[in-house]
Amino acid sequence: MTLEEIRGQEKAMETPDRVQSAGAALEELLLAAKKQEYLTVGVYESAKVMNVDPDSVAFCVLATDEEYECDIALQIHFTLIQAFCFDNDINVARVNDIERLADLVSAGEPGEPKDAHCILVTSPSANPWKDPALDKLSAFCEESRSVYDWVPTVTLPER
What we know:
- There is one protein chain.
- The protein is of the alpha/beta class.
- Helix content is 52%, strand content 14%.
- The chain has a five-stranded mixed β-sheet, sandwiched between helices.
- The longest helix is centred in the N-terminal third of the chain and has 21 residues, at 16-36.
- The N and C termini lie far apart (41 Å).
């Protein structure tokens, strides 16, 4: 395969419709998982879940923005979480709008906004949860990996 062919494949993978579709699917998935109480929000809380029951994790979202890009500790956590996800065949995606993500996962809840840097969508092992949005995101991640984008970035739809 030539460099031009690879670049052509990469451009095809980055179509706005594809990214917007993944963003809408992520929003849909997070809202559905929240209703079912299948969300784990926060870096440390997520690490606990992954350590205790990695088979229950269906999807991982890592979020950051310009304010946290230079946070070395957070980047180390992200690297470890990504490695864990890859080792356990868990799809993982990045979101660059942490405020919007925090609004989605803490909507309607009183108190301080949650640490939305890492969000896990879990599913009980005994009775796996099926969701069309999860299937869409899994396909999006698989397509991204086929062009060597190991942790694709998903853009959430505007409100």
